[in-house]
Design goal:
Rossmann fold, 19 strands, 15 helices, about 35% helix, globular, 6-stranded parallel β-sheet, alpha/beta, about 450 residues, 5-stranded mixed β-barrel, about 20% strand
């Protein structure tokens, strides 16, 4: 299967964008676009690209949906509460559509690809003009034009087997949210089929961008003055665009000037010593590794289809800390996976105590329809999941304070976010005594540590 959108198709979309832009010029209109994004960094970057296409069509961005002529809702399907919030928010746009019949509302992203969602929108949300699956974002100009010309609703959701759907469109403009931080997608989709996760069903199978295209994009960002660049993928370690991910990372970190290079996310089963060696050797690569473990119990890991054991995870952590002793290590934990016993949970607590993560993203298990874990009969009551979540969070809070405390009295290189805030190389928030321009590096003397941030005096802006 050809996973790349042909250049003729992207040129067609540019031509359609030109037609829309000309229509607005004739009508003497300056239409506005508003976007709301739910979910991960990949969704945020997808929104940036859709906004880039909207601007190419002649729209200007607005932060107020009440002023918009085009509303893009980019959705997340990872957890149940995100789905509820999305529909609640989208429901508020009904009144806006009643006030402005020309308003176009697009429902995009992972939820759009879920089974039954398009039918639910068709039945219950008649003011939504189009449902756009995750492989059709690049067709935004065509979608907008069709709605403008026909006022007919469109459902661009691929119903092919998930091993087949999903395309990569290069040469798509992006309206980046920041002038100094940027996301760069290196791959899309996932082949792992963890039993709790909906991603392979809504994002499709793994497909990687070409090595040359990723490198060219990063090089251009560096030349344009971007200082914090994150390479994105559901599992970047299985990148297959012509070289290993370690070699891709090494090349992207090789350009002149001071900038930071990060990556999200790694699957432990594929995290290689080669990758850790490259991180250790290159000053432009942040010494921050997000390595989701999810559970400390081998029984639960097997039920999750994670395909590594507690011991192999600990071996990778040991190698990482041998190569990068002061590495910032963060992870994900799911509390209350179906069938998780108290003993399984205690094994997770003991792993956290042993590894001593700098920070954890902790989640209460949320069953997602269509995943095998959701169909299990040994679901855990919410009250018990919450108890475990709170106990785990309390344990990690103390560890995070201890880990942050190691920086007190040291000088860290930080990147300003403006308004007397900055970020360390490890991603920790730093409250500074001096306000320096966002996107500026500075040396900061750490005066105090807290669970959520550090305090510092800027000594060399």
């Amino acid at each position: 299967m050809e996973i790349f959108v042909p250049k003729t198709e992207t040129e067609k979309q540019k031509a359609v964008a030109g037609e829309i832009r000309e229509r607005f010029r004739r009508e003497n209109r300056r239409p506005l676009v508003f976007a709301r994004t739910y979910g991960c960094q990949q969704n945020e970057h997808d929104t940036e690209k859709m906004l880039g296409l909207a601007l190419m069509c002649g729209y200007e961005k607005t932060g107020d949906p009440a002023n918009a002529d085009l509303i893009i809702v980019n959705t997340c399907a990872i957890r149940e509460h995100a789905e509820k919030r999305t529909f609640s928010c989208t429901g508020a746009y009904k009144k806006l559509k009643e006030q402005n019949r020309e308003l176009i509302i697009l429902f995009c992203g992972c939820m759009a690809q879920e089974t039954g969602i398009a039918e639910k929108i068709k039945r219950s949300y008649p003011y939504i003009d189009a449902v756009v699956g995750t492989d059709s974002n690049h067709r935004l100009p065509e979608i907008i034009q069709n709605v403008m010309q026909t006022r007919k609703r469109a459902y661009l959701v691929n119903s092919l087997p998930h091993s087949d759907f999903g395309v990569i469109a290069e040469d798509i403009p992006a309206l980046r949210e920041s002038e100094y931080k940027a996301w760069v997608s290196v791959m899309y989709g996932c082949n792992n089929y963890c039993t709790y996760c909906i991603v392979p069903y809504v994002r499709g199978r793994e497909r990687s961008r070409r090595y040359e295209d990723v490198v060219a994009e990063v090089k251009q960002l560096v030349e344009n003055g971007y200082k914090d660049i994150t390479l994105l993928g559901q599992n970047v370690n299985s990148y297959s665009g012509g070289v290993s991910f370690a070699r891709l990372l090494e090349k992207c970190a090789s350009f002149g000037g001071e900038y930071r290079l990060r990556f999200m996310t790694s699957h432990p089963k594929d995290a290689s010593n080669e990758l850790m060696d490259v991180m250790a050797a290159n000053p432009n690569i942040c010494k921050h590794f997000h390595l989701p473990v999810q559970s400390g119990s081998d029984k639960v890991l097997e039920a999750m289809n994670r395909r590594y054991t507690r011991n192999t995870y600990l071996e990778k952590v040991a190698y990482l800390r041998e190569k990068i002793p002061d590495v910032t290590l963060t992870s994900d934990i799911i509390c209350g996976f179906p069938g998780e016993t108290e003993e399984d949970f205690e094994q997770t607590l003991s792993l956290i105590s042993q590894v001593r993560f700098d920070m954890l993203y902790t989640f209460i298990y949320s069953p997602r329809p269509g995943t095998s874990a959701a169909a299990r009969g040994d679901q855990i009551p919410y009250e018990e999941k919450l108890r475990r979540f709170e106990k785990l969070s309390a344990l990690q809070l103390g560890i995070t304070l201890e880990r942050n405390g190691r920086h007190t009295g040291k000088v860290l290189r930080v990147l300003s976010e403006g308004k007397k805030t900055a970020r360390s190389e490890g991603g920790t928030l730093v409250a500074t005594d001096t306000d320096i321009p966002a996107g500026t590096f500075a040396d900061a003397y750490i005066t105090a540590a807290h669970p959520a941030n550090l305090e510092a005096k800027i000594i060399r802006p």
